[in-house]
Backbone:
């Protein structure tokens, strides 16, 4: 590929614990790229370091050494307002536990990133209605999160993550709290926005079914990338089988 | 084992317990402070001379008990919400319900009683400290004031322990009847803010009528007597609550429709507020009442304070009159930098004091003629000898001829007639300082050395009337100030407690906002605004209450209770602002880490 990657990760290290005390190295040098419009999965068992990695990529935590760039902008040393602006404009985030504000309606939750940028009310309304239509959540907009099912909540969360046209969308086990039907619908939705709007997606999961929706999967073990799997032209169900096989040998 | 587990839960959430404890300690300390005055009948009788005062304090006690009731119910639900998860966990690991019941009961009582005991000690210290400061800075004269007063401590302990027993019982039932899983996941569910126009309209109407009745009865205390205070107490509390209940919901929904709501975190702030409406209305009504009580008490206290110089000055134009001053006395007088300092010569027999008219024509004697008793307005008249004789104000001169000549009628003679008198010539020195209150200590020394007594019936003048008026008003002034400070502290502790007890639940919301790209500045200003609304609303209602409530004091105050009202309001505003800043600061520290 000759295009400029949307995200580059170079020799990323993370060590917990202060020097001198007992230290634990969670990440031991991670390198990879994400191309524009790519749908990448990161897989690994509990404790493999995948959540740590995601926190670095999403600027929620700072690495001990190494660099991450998104849109050619190095992000590991952003601070204060720069950091907040970066989060608001360049990345979208979907969490396992939805992270919706239960004091606000679905509409208000989705509109929040735009309100933060002081977008005019009319523009916000159009934007929210557009994205709600794409994600099929128009009829829930006036509901509060506790009046929605898990799947509906996650769609609202997705709408909030996407409303700013982020450079990349991060998903941290987004199907973790969903039943299988809702999970499948959400993953289909991810595939749809990835293909139709060329949104780059980085999905962290330990669930092979979720991972099988990705085009490329990085397997992480003990803080290092152990293996990489390309879907290529494979059918999703065949790819699922391949993921299962890989996992079977990888975790040994 | 369970006790050990319970203790670890305790350590884990020490910050929350600190909020809870300090809240309860402040509450009981202030209750004690109030009772220290209210139950001390000797103090009330001796210092005010108003027979109604005992009953007024009874009403105050009732009001404070209601406030305490709500306060403890809040504190208890806060305690309960802290412990729910832990107790759910104990149940999951197989603890018996009866055992858990014991634990809850014990914990509630332990927290309650220890906080109350510390509160009483703190209350005693505060009573001693505050009254010392007030007495010294205002120059008050008080009798029978005791910082440690056993009946007050007993009342406080009884009320609090009683309430905590009830609270413990309530917790016991609430927790043991709830299934373990529900306890584990009992996060607050938001109640959808709803507008029920009919109900709210009724609430508004009933609320307004109640408040109107309350205001009216405060203005007509002369006819209603004590009943008026009772009526006002019930109707204003009820009306305030109903109005907050009806208007707050409506206000938040209306504000959300404005375009401003879409800017920055405003929408979030409004949602936060409307999310908590039901929780907050009771507290806001109480805070509004406390605000009114505190501000009212301080205003009245300062009102009495400002009456002291007025009454003093309308009595005599001169601070003291001294006969045959010594050199050192003259030096002391000069050190006071008096505005006027006159020495008249006289000769006296048993019934008459003879002056030379020429001296009075040269240095006129100033008298004070009260024009309007209600407003205490007066004019000063400079009299020559003939005028004094005519005016009938010669008693003001007689007041100054203290000592042996007290009863001597002044007679003004020509120099020739005066020279013929055989009695020895003496001197009367009279002087006026610019402010008798300011120079009270020096005047006292002077009077004590000269008259060999501080009993003001033995000498006259402005200083003597200051001492008399001061001792008359000190009690009222002290009560106003003291209770004002106590209510203000209670108010702060109520509001801070309510706001801070919700802070823990807000933590994850602010963390979430940070994750989606909110700047620190935006988060901070959202917190500032949210808490500001919670401070301003009861403040406005409280000020309105005070403005009407001051009507009550028309009966016992000589001048209008509204005179110079800006000063207590300003002082109060500064203190209130200080509380706001402290609350915001603590809240920020809890929420944004």
Residues:
């Amino acid at each position: 590929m000759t295009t400029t990657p949307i995200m580059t990760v170079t020799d990323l290290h993370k060590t917990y614990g202060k020097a001198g005390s007992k230290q634990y190295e969670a990440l031991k040098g991670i390198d990879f790229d994400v191309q524009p419009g790519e749908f990448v999965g990161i897989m690994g068992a509990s404790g493999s370091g995948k959540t740590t990695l995601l926190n670095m990529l999403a600027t929620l935590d700072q690495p001990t050494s190494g660099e991450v760039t998104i849109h050619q902008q190095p992000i590991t040393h952003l601070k204060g307002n720069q950091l907040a602006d970066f989060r608001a404009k360049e990345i979208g985030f979907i969490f396992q536990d939805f992270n919706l504000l239960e004091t606000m309606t679905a509409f208000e939750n989705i509109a929040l990133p735009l309100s933060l940028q002081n977008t005019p009310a009319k523009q916000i309304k159009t934007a929210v209605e557009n994205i709600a239509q794409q994600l099929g959540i128009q009829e829930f907009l006036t509901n509060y999160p506790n009046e929605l099912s898990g799947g509906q909540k996650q769609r609202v969360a997705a709408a909030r993550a996407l409303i700013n046209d982020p450079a990349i969308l991060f998903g941290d086990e987004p199907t973790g709290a969903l039943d299988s039907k809702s999970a499948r619908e959400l993953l289909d939705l991810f595939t749809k926005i990835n293909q139709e709007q060329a949104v780059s997606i980085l999905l962290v999961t330990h669930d092979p079914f979720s991972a099988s929706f990705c085009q490329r999967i990085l397997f992480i073990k003990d803080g290092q990338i152990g293996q990489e799997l390309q879907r290529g032209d494979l059918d999703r169900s065949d790819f699922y089988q391949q993921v299962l096989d890989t996992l079977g040998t990888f975790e040994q | 084992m369970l006790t050990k587990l319970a203790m670890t839960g305790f350590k884990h959430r020490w910050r929350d317990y600190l909020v809870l404890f300090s809240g309860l300690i402040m509450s009981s300390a202030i209750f004690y402070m109030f009772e220290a005055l209210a139950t001390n009948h000797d103090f009330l009788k001796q210092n005010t001379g108003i027979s109604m005062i005992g009953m007024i304090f009874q009403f105050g006690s009732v009001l404070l008990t209601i406030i305490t009731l709500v306060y403890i119910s809040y504190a208890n639900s806060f305690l309960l919400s802290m412990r729910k998860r832990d107790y759910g966990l104990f149940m999951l690991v197989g603890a018996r319900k009866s055992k858990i019941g014991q634990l809850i009961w014990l914990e509630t009582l332990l927290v309650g009683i220890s906080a109350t005991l510390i509160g009483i000690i703190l209350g005693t210290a505060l009573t001693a400290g505050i009254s010392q400061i007030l007495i010294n800075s205002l120059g008050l004269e008080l009798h029978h004031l005791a910082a440690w007063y056993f009946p007050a401590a007993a009342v406080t302990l009884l009320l609090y322990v009683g309430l905590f027993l009830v609270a413990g019982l309530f917790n016991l039932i609430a927790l043991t009847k709830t299934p373990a899983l529900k306890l584990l996941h009992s996060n607050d569910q938001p109640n959808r803010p709803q507008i029920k126009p009919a109900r709210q309209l009724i609430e508004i109407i009933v609320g307004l009528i109640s408040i109107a009745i309350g205001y009216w009865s405060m203005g007509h205390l002369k006819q209603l007597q004590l009943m008026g205070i009772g009526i006002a107490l019930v109707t204003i509390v009820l009306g305030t609550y109903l109005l907050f209940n009806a208007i707050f919901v409506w206000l938040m929904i209306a504000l959300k429709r404005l375009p401003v709501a879409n800017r920055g975190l405003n929408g979030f702030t409004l949602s936060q507020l409307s999310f908590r409406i039901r929780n907050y209305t009771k507290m806001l009504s109480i805070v509004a009442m406390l605000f009114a009580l505190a501000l009212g008490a301080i205003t009245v206290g300062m009102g009495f304070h400002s009456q002291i110089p007025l009454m003093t000055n309308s009595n005599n134009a001169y601070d003291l009159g001294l006969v045959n001053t010594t050199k050192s006395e003259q030096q002391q007088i000069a050190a006071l930098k008096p505005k006027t300092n006159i020495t008249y010569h006289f000769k006296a027999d048993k019934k008459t004091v003879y002056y030379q008219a020429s001296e009075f024509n040269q240095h006129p004697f100033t008298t004070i003629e009260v024009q309007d008793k209600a407003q205490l307005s007066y004019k000063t008249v400079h009299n020559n000898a003939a005028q004094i004789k005519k005016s009938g104000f010669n008693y003001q001169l007689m007041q100054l001829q203290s000592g042996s000549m007290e009863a001597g009628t002044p007679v003004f003679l020509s120099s020739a007639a005066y020279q013929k008198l055989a009695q020895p010539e003496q001197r009367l020195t009279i002087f006026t300082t610019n402010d008798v209150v300011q120079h009270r200590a020096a005047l006292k020394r002077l009077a004590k050395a000269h008259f060999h007594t501080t009993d003001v019936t033995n000498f006259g003048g402005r200083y003597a009337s200051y001492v008399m008026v001061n001792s008359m008003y000190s009690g009222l002034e002290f009560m106003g100030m003291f209770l004002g400070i106590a209510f203000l502290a209670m108010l702060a502790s109520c509001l801070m407690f309510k706001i801070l007890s919700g802070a823990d639940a807000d933590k994850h919301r602010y963390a979430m906002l940070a994750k989606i790209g909110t700047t620190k500045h935006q988060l901070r200003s959202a917190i500032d605004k949210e808490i500001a609304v919670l401070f301003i609303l009861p403040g406005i209602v409280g000020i309105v209450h005070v403005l009407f409530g001051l009507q009550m004091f028309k009966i016992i105050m000589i001048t209008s209770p509204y005179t110079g009202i800006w000063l207590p309001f300003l002082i109060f505003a500064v203190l209130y602002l200080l509380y706001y800043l402290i609350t915001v600061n603590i809240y920020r520290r809890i929420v944004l880490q």
